[in-house]
Amino acid sequence: MSALAAAGFPEARIRARARNGTAEVFPGPDVYGTELFGPDAYGTDPAHGPGDGLDRARIVPPVFTPERLEKLIDLAREPEFTDVDLTSRVGGFASRLPLYLSAFGSTRAGSGDLAVHATRQAARLGIPMVIGENMVPVHGYRRAEDSGRSALLGRIEAYLDAVPDGVGGIVVQQSTEDADSEVWNLLYSDPSLRPLLETGRLAFELKTGQGAKPGLGGMTVVGGAEAEALARRFTVRKVFDERGERQLRCATPGTFTDEILRQQLRFMRNNFPKAGTWVKFHPGRDIGDAARTAWAAGAGAVTVDGAEGGTGYAPRVFLDQVGLPLAECLRRIGRPDGCLLASGRMWEGGRALRALALGAGAVGLGRAALIAVDEDPEHGLERLVDALALELRLLISALGKYTVDALGPEDLWWPDAPAAPVPRYAPDPLGAVR
Amino acid sequence: MDQTSRTGTATAPPPLGEHLRSPRLRAAMLVQQEALHAAREYLRAQDFVELLPPLVGPVTDPGGRGAKALDVDYYGQPYKLMTSAILYKQASLRGFPKLFYIAPNVRVEPEETATTGRHLVEFHQIDVEIADASREEAQEIAAGLLTHVTEQVWSRIPGVLAELGREETGFADVRSGKYDVCTHHEAVTRLQACGHPQNPDGEIDWAGERLLSLESDRPFFINDYPKGSRGFYDREDPENPGVLRNFDLIAPHGYGELVSGSERESDYATIVTRMRESGENPAKYAWYLKEAREGIPASAGFGMGLQRLVRFLTGLDAVWQVSAYPKLPGVMAP
């Protein structure tokens, strides 16, 4: 170490890169599998205080509540928060709450026992569940010579065992590498999934990206032996150490144009007519066009994963510097033409309500769900959701409303927006969110 | 023709031994033998060369409608049993500008197709490809093939067909080569008008196809399927984006689709783009894309389902009755 100093310059980080090279681009592989990656949970912006743009909007109940009057007439008594109906349609499924269990990144944290516990509880809650891409390319699927249950089928069975009749549903993602494993085809023709198909509770989600690393494909840290096995299908790179004891497995993000997206969705509808068709986008700058293209092509749900989202592994620069915040994604989408789903740091009622008021039909729980089942594998997620649902009922009733789809942009106030006369009707969803 | 409409609801096959001994299968095999002979005769007279198709490869036709390819372990690499030899047909054109196969195919069809009477997991296609041909030229060959085969079977073994209850007068339209043409859009409109909820962006579904087939007394072509309903190799109409220069040939009286065909994409960049549009990973298709990059001729071609053709000629209820070793979707059979 020389005596050279550079005050005000990120000297320590530069020295770390000079020592460790590309390993410094990523969070340490030592915490892989025990830490959920994603942007700082509550990054503090000195200009605005805690939280991101979506958290800074205030929920603003009105004095006059014509919709409460309607409810009063309907009930012949004063409505209460317990009268709020949280049942929702989520991408064609009936759901008891405007929530779904997001796909977990393929870190060990997201594809082990925790995921199975989260699955059981999501089923008992009667909310849909999304199963992540690359479960099959990485963990395999039941083959003729393999009588064991794969991780994917294990989760599907756990869900089916616990879900009440008439609610919930399972959504299975596929990305470009998954297409090689023909995940959707395997599932669609698997007799064990017939109960799902017959009750209209299976959907397939085309994954075009994710919030934690917009513009990149999936990434996991793998040991040397596993790296060798995966190297045939994925790019595997020695970014952590020269010996390659731990390596980075990268999937491609896939190439999309509006026509490719439109046709892929049509293909899904054509090939799997009994399954719903969902699509998940990263928080791209053209998210408005992408969402409209997807709905026009018949997508039953469009999921936008804000830059705050992610349970998977990602380069540091992506976690902190890449992608639109969820609030801006929702602003660019505006009034949705179909079912819009939103994810990215959801865990309590306030943020969920803000996303719902901005057009989302439901919000996804990812990291929050994993932490909750880590806290209590038996009931942690159920308790977390009970608290969230109670907050939603309290908030929605305070707004003088009694259903999720009654929420609208008028229910929020943005301190960042320039002061403007309050419009009498049809306000711009967000004003300018910076 | 025996005018009873075919619904494909014949019962499941008996045990294999009993099936192989049945007089009905024997009659069907005699018809199949004549049909194959007549098909080869017709195509060879038109200067087609018969090649033998591959059985396994690193990739096969991705197919659609939930049909899967079977994987085989090929020296540690995952190979596929051929669901169709389309990629090989195109690659062969530089050496064989007019070629055909009698190609065995294996498609793990979704179980719901077990009752259509028109699906088998193992089946054969009379698979034809013509360099530098248009859709209309391919249709002419397909129609000529059906006409010639029908003609020859009736002239060589009329007794076998009569024994099966077929009437020669019913085949007059087929033998005269008078085939109607409509577009996918017109077919969808017709179906929706009679209350059938046909998806306008997709394949004509099984029930819809049957309705159209039952309405008709003569074979007819459906042209111009929308992109997103067929494979990446069906050529998009440059004059009409989103529409493919392809066709199906539908048999009358409820027998349904006998032939699928198309002009092919041969431009490398277009093929790669179309692969993405159908959700495919181009890396899987390395050998084929290398050929395409070097230049494969423009072409048109089709596949005629052999068992469907024989079922149409014999008038039997289901394709399993015209297969010696039938494997129905979702049913374990030897």
Automatic annotation (TrEMBL), chain A:
<protein>
    <submittedName>
        <fullName>Glutamate synthase (NADPH) GltB2 subunit</fullName>
    </submittedName>
</protein>
<feature type="domain" description="Glutamate synthase">
    <location>
        <begin position="203"/>
        <end position="373"/>
    </location>
</feature>
<dbReference type="GO" id="GO:0015930">
    <property type="term" value="F:glutamate synthase activity"/>
</dbReference>
<dbReference type="Pfam" id="PF01645">
    <property type="entry name" value="Glu_synthase"/>
</dbReference>
<dbReference type="InterPro" id="IPR002932">
    <property type="entry name" value="Glu_synthdom"/>
</dbReference>
<dbReference type="InterPro" id="IPR013785">
    <property type="entry name" value="Aldolase_TIM"/>
</dbReference>
<dbReference type="GO" id="GO:0006537">
    <property type="term" value="P:glutamate biosynthetic process"/>
</dbReference>
<comment type="similarity">
    <text>Belongs to the glutamate synthase family.</text>
</comment>
From TrEMBL, chain B:
<dbReference type="GO" id="GO:0006421">
    <property type="term" value="P:asparaginyl-tRNA aminoacylation"/>
</dbReference>
<protein>
    <submittedName>
        <fullName>Asparagine synthetase A</fullName>
    </submittedName>
</protein>
<dbReference type="GO" id="GO:0005524">
    <property type="term" value="F:ATP binding"/>
</dbReference>
<keyword id="KW-0030">Aminoacyl-tRNA synthetase</keyword>
<feature type="domain" description="Aminoacyl-transfer RNA synthetases class-II family profile">
    <location>
        <begin position="98"/>
        <end position="334"/>
    </location>
</feature>
<keyword id="KW-0436">Ligase</keyword>
<dbReference type="InterPro" id="IPR004364">
    <property type="entry name" value="Aa-tRNA-synt_II"/>
</dbReference>
<dbReference type="GO" id="GO:0004816">
    <property type="term" value="F:asparagine-tRNA ligase activity"/>
</dbReference>
<keyword id="KW-0648">Protein biosynthesis</keyword>
<dbReference type="InterPro" id="IPR006195">
    <property type="entry name" value="aa-tRNA-synth_II"/>
</dbReference>
<dbReference type="Pfam" id="PF00152">
    <property type="entry name" value="tRNA-synt_2"/>
</dbReference>
<keyword id="KW-0067">ATP-binding</keyword>
<dbReference type="InterPro" id="IPR045864">
    <property type="entry name" value="aa-tRNA-synth_II/BPL/LPL"/>
</dbReference>
<keyword id="KW-0547">Nucleotide-binding</keyword>
